[in-house]
């Protein structure tokens, strides 16, 4: 039921070697920030146990520090196999995020 909706946030299937684009959110697989900036924004928001914690953090960091010329490459990854529990946690966090 949620698969089509959830897939728009799952970026695993893109060939990033061929695609360059500006992103407004950074996945948790790569978070690179100054300690000072993390402290100033209060770090991770504890309301997000799993999923969207990285989106929230990246949006708040973007308001603080923004470096449009940084390029990041992430090869593969299967750290979160999707079962019912993951979908449930995703939906709960998505509601909180919105």
UniProtKB/TrEMBL annotation:
**A molecular-function term among this protein's GO annotations:** transferase activity
Task: Cite the entry's keywords alphabetically.
Answer: Transferase
SUPFAM superfamilies recorded? Nucleotide-diphospho-sugar transferases
Q: Which ranges form a coiled coil?
A: none
* Domain of life where this protein originates: Bacteria
Q: Does the entry feature the keyword Transferase, yes or no?
A: yes
Q: What is this protein called?
A: Glycosyltransferase-like protein, family 2 domain protein
The organism encoding this protein is Leptospira interrogans serovar Pyrogenes str. 200701872
């Amino acid at each position: 039921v949620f698969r089509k909706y959830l897939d728009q946030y799952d970026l695993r299937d893109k060939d990033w070697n061929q695609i360059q684009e500006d992103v407004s959110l950074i996945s948790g697989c790569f978070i690179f920030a100054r300690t000072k900036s993390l402290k100033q924004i209060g770090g991770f928001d504890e309301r997000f146990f799993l999923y969207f914690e990285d989106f929230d953090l990246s949006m708040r960091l973007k308001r603080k520090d923004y470096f449009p010329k940084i390029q990041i490459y992430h090869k593969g990854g299967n750290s979160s196999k999707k079962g019912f529990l993951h979908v449930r946690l995703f939906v709960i966090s998505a509601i909180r995020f919105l």
